[in-house]
Amino acid sequence: MSDMKKTMLITGAAGGVGRATVKHFHERGFRVIGVDRQSVYAEFPTDGLFIQADISVPENLEKIFAQATEFTPTLDVLVNNAGFQVTKPLVETTVEEWDMVMASNLRSVFLGAKLAYPLLKAEGGGAIVNVSSVHAVATSANIAAYAASKGGLLALTRAMAIEFAPDNIRVNAVLPGAVDTPMLRAGFHRGRENEASEESQLAALAAKTVNGRVALPEEIASVIYFLADNAQSSFITGQGLLADGGATCRLSTE
Ligand code: NAI
Question: Which residues in the chain come in under a pLDDT of 50?
């Protein structure tokens, strides 16, 4: 392709945060490559490429990057956004479930970074944004594998930032609090009988944040864009930016 558009690749593109981020970058002139194990969605930009694939399988990442570079040989931004939760007590979590969470949320980022690095370097630099979670810094019961994967992702962000800095590649993480997406709403349906309505559970959750609401997916998309945009965040690398409506700033003993 001969035009001067910048390219970004995002995993978990068909989810709540993913869709908002695809739209946000596309509206700002990016060519978008989206990856998700869900099937293609109608509104995906027509000048972009959607790849249906499961990133927990290492060989699939090689196929994804081969397809992406066939589509366009350059890469400017990688957003590691795909995420998967197992919500059950630690002692009931199986080895298979633990491995699946780690493979989806953490190993895929390590393998994706290896494949994206030469492409970003060839462009003279770029940015990687990893979507971690508040669970990297404070967590709750019944979500140990997910919390460990998100904590690992924050540590991996620092390691990547240090190793990639000489090539002008910045690496940061966003740590969202509760965001109104299919993942959040799915969590309301697990393990509860006679449950309250989804909306009242959402309201109860919102009441626990300092600013009294959960985030819209677009509010995380704009933070991802900020961390990817050299014009706005050129001196920020190796950081985890909490976008949680103040959820983690209040002492739980208060
Ligand atoms: P979502 O469930 O709407 O979207 C996640 C997407 O990732 C889904 O489309 C899913 O198919 C895809 N995905 C998961 N595992 C995959 C795999 N192995 N291969 C390919 N695709 C895979 O969830 P949401 O909320 O949009 O999540 C986006 C990111 O934000 C995730 O990393 C999540 O952990 C993180 N996050 C979300 C929060 C929330 O409250 N919704 C809070 C903190 C972090």
Answer: 1-2, 194
Ligand 1 centroid – CA 166 distance (Å): 31
Distance from residue 1's CA to the centre of ligand 1 (Å): 30
Q: What is the Cα 221 distance to its own chain's centre?
A: 10
Instruction: Determine the Cα–Cα distance for residues 82 and 80; give it in Å rounded to an integer.
Output: 6
146 is catalytic: yes
Q: What is the pLDDT of residues 127-151, one digit of tens each?
A: 999 999 999 999 999 999 999 999 9
In a 10 Å sphere around its CB, with 0-12 CB exposed, 13-18 middle and 19+ buried, how is residue 95 labelled? exposed
Residues with a CB atom less than 6 Å from ligand 1: 12, 14-18, 36-38, 54-56, 81-84, 104, 131, 133, 176, 178-179, 181-184
Region 7-178+216-246: CATH code = 3.40.50.720
Nearest ligand 1 atom to alpha carbon 38: 11
Three-state secondary-structure class, residue 206: helix
Closest Cα to atom 2, ligand 1: which residue? 183
Cβ–Cβ < 8 Å for 171, 161:
yes
Tell the residue number behind the tokens 């959402």, with chain if given: 202
Q: Return the structure tokens found at 121.
A: 């370097």
Concatenated DSSP letters of 114-176:
HHHHHHHHHTT-EEEEEE--GGGTS--TT-HHHHHHHHHHHHHHHHHHHHHGGGTEEEEEEEE
Q: Give the per-residue pLDDT at 2.
A: 45
pTM over 0.85: yes
